[in-house]
Design goal:
Elements: H1 7-12, H2 27-94
């Protein structure tokens, strides 16, 4: 009971929840909840797309690094072959 109410006024006052006027059942509350859920879903989808794009980017970066390494190995093989050729020519010239 509040200090400004009489006992009769207090008894007349209904403190039980009125489910017909509950904000949870109101259409605007349901719309707000739907909007929040939709926004969360969109944010999760965007985050998933960004993770996927980052993974794809890293994959291509790794593939590029492997190709560069293969090129360096092929270059070294060519230089070794050129050195072996030079040694063979030198050996032939000295004999």
């Amino acid at each position: 009971m509040f200090w400004w109410m009489t006992i009769t006024e207090f008894r007349k006052e209904s403190f039980a929840p009125n489910w017909t006027r509950s904000p949870i059942r109101s259409p605007s509350f349901k719309k707000a909840v739907d909007d929040i859920v939709e926004a969360d879903l969109q944010a999760a989808k965007a985050e998933a797309r960004s993770i996927e794009a980052e993974a794809r980017s890293r994959r291509w970066k790794l593939q590029r690094a492997v190709e560069d390494l293969d090129n360096q190995i092929a270059f070294l093989h060519a230089r070794v072959a050129a050195l072996d050729r030079g040694n063979a020519v030198l050996t032939l010239a000295t004999t």
